[in-house]
């Protein structure tokens, strides 16, 4: 009893039950909450996706909708003609149906990447409850929205492997088509799901534990891919489309139109001439799903052990098939939320039809009572067994539906919709199932009906854990974790819990300091984040309009989905997550994290260290805004930024290569990265960001200004232009032909694949060209440059530089300073210029010029050309026939490996022939000395005869 009461309290309080329920389950199980019945009937549960209440629309489209097996099923049991999804969205509806908790408790109110099991303990579902009560639980297909094997294994005893490879299973469709006939020899997952379910049914025996088999079919959800025979049942020439007039939306509020998903998909279909194909595909997919249900019924009928089985069938949400210019769900009109619900059970009257409005929340308690189990009072639905056993109209029942802060109530024949901005629609859903005529302005309704329905709506929302008042200017939350439906211009006061607000234009959320972790979903195109609110996100759809979001000086999490955005985060350590679209973002002061999947984005951080992660579109990134020192003239201190372009996710930073690079940054001399920015990038991001990753080679051209501070930039794919700015920066150009400007500071620049241009500018820099034909400029400072593969050009410019050519025919220019030039494999061109330089050609036919200064030249294997230039130079040709060029009157040079295959060229206006040169040559021990004191060349380990035979004048 203790666990039972604790569970009830936990569920009422919302999110706080995550850890408390674990304590309950550690000492008990659902079997202590649910008393096991000695006579448990087998249960077969079947759920389909996006199926409207088909019987209401059987002859709406000029052709009869054929559902022979669903008709067969309904003839055996009780049909609920007015069953409703708690929310007309797959994720939220399935979460509510399977857990028995309303969207006000699960906090899933929209199409969200957040999965139900991230918000609700995975044990809180009726499959687990029935398993604890003694059932053998088996699951196949799309039952929960999150159908990952790991989730299913935590819930079901036996599952179908969702992700195994099966030859012949269709995995791709034609993106240029709305509907596709299944090719010969191919099948889709629904057929495999049904095969598995049929086998499970056939193998069940009466002496086994009672079976709970849950089957989830994807059709009629898109893509409309089914065998051709189902398309043939609905010729496009016979299909009659819904009447399409502008008047369909004349009585709909501007608020709803502003957030209507993709214009209800209407314009897309009409403009492409696809409306009949869409209707045909949807109807064909229904009949295909019906055929799979028929196979399951045949298997049940063929097994006597299942003769008294309970069968429950439903759809997660309905669908608008063209009416009100909509070809989609995501509305609070009748067709989107009205779903089929059929219960076959020995207690049901065969063929009975119940007009009572009911909710899919009622499935959980109904199944428990049908199985003889006790119903936990924590559930938001109630058992339908009384209606099943006593068909009739239970007039007092009211059903609530919600969608992103707007609410609908179905009571008796009426449907009242209260949108988030306060506007109202009212329909008679018995006479007007297509929601064609909004009757809210009729006097009789505005005076009495609507106020009564709003009061009833308030009561039911409160019963399900929400806060709503459609008739008051001020609304107060509770001390628990509330979902607050702010209505129009209301002021809503949250309590001490973790609250979720839905705000429209003019609504106001008021939170106190320390009032929990509070979130806002806003439907306002110019929105200012309230104080003490930690997380905000936009209403999902905006039809091309831009959301403007103004932050505050607190640390906010700002999430913009499926819309354009202009975000100014102001102060605080902010997390800004921008979806697809054109975005402008100013992170402001603080250690901020910005993630964007959109295109042509401008991010401007403050002086603190920020982490910026971009998508694969062309982005413009500024790590720092223009910052004035305070007081004027004072030194300006900023932290470094982490900038990643073209879709690499924070989780990718933990792969072996990235982890090594990041882990060693702080150990590299003169370099540091803001640990706060890195911590956010790896730890703070919710799970949805961690899946955001693409092939970096598909990236677009980015313009990145990292700004002040020690920055870390991953430009990734595309032809990028990166300006690292002041500070000790690290830049990875990635794929593409990149231009990377190190600017001031000790920079570390990587070009990546492609023909890159890297400039270190001021500071002691390290440049890595990597693959491609690269140009590397060291700038001022003592630089180290590595060309790697390709025919590269490296210019050290001023400073004592190290230039490594790598594989390819490279050109290395030392510049002013004492430089080290190494050609490596390939025919390289090395020029030391001014300074005491060291040149090493490596393998290949190299051309080396020491330039001014006391230089050391080593040719290596190959036919090399070595020119010392002015200064006291040392030349070594290495293996192969080499050519040594000596400038007379410019220093004392030395050649240490001259042989009979080499050439010696002397350039001097004082000599006109080799004989004249040999006149000043003497044998000096083992060496030959040519010239006079102060201006000479010493050729080691050779003879006058060898030198005389190989010397020429130039």
Automatic annotation (TrEMBL):
It comes from the Bacteria. The lineage of its organism: Bacteria, Pseudomonadati, Planctomycetota, Planctomycetia, Pirellulales. It comes from Stieleria marina. One of its GO terms (molecular function) is arylsulfatase activity. PROSITE patterns: HEMOLYSIN_CALCIUM. The keyword Metal-binding applies. It is an enzyme of class 3 (hydrolase). Its EC number is 3.1.6.1. This is Arylsulfatase. Residues 815-874 are annotated as: Disordered.
